[in-house]
Design a protein that fits this description.
This protein is α+β, with helices and mostly antiparallel strands. It contains 8 helices and 7 strands, in the order βββαβααβααββααα.
Amino acid sequence: MKKTAAILTSLVIAGMSCVPLAASAASSEFIVSPVSDENVSASDMSVFSVEVMKLVNKERVSRGLPAYKVLPELIRAADIRAKETVKLWDHTRPDGRGGLTVVDDLGLEWNALGENIAKGQTSPASVMNGWMNSNDHRASILSRNFQYFGVGVAYSGGMYYWTQVFMGSSDNFPVAYYPEKYGDTNNDGKIDSIDASLVLKEYAATSVGKPYTLKSSERARSMLNGDNKVDSVDASIILKIYAKNST
């Protein structure tokens, strides 16, 4: 099996001033799972993403801080950035712009932004352990300047790449939900096969040009993998979360 050092870097933007924080290597090493890129599915990575978001709020709530809400656009932003860090391991994007310009690209209004990136860790728990043991990364996770966030995960060359994008905004986003709600399409307090069936029904309708079968709030809770659409991948993620919660 291949070993790799777990690496973390953090970036915070408040207003228009950019403060890049020094990269830091984690003190321990993690074993990368010996699987090929083809065997790691998009739904696997999205399940990891949801788990990281839950762990972030667990840390916040345990310290008396309000939980972050998830925006579908920030899941999209984090997913884009995770894939970009595979190409260029930096807070700079492959096109030369700053990493957090991804939020502007998606048309969001903000007053503070933050980004944590990491590579080499093989589970949500291990990457969160690394971030929480780094002052700069922990500061973003526990910040009072942000209300919204998203997490993206990519996998390439036997290694996971992790990104958190945080945002502070005075805007109210009606489609922002707590991580526990993602996948709960019908908002009945549980994530199960019924939610997956509703997602597949929506996908079947929209695939042939028929109107949406879900309300906007239901669609927002169903878009789990950051691609801004409801489809069979989301249904697969929901079923994996359901299976995990059932064990």
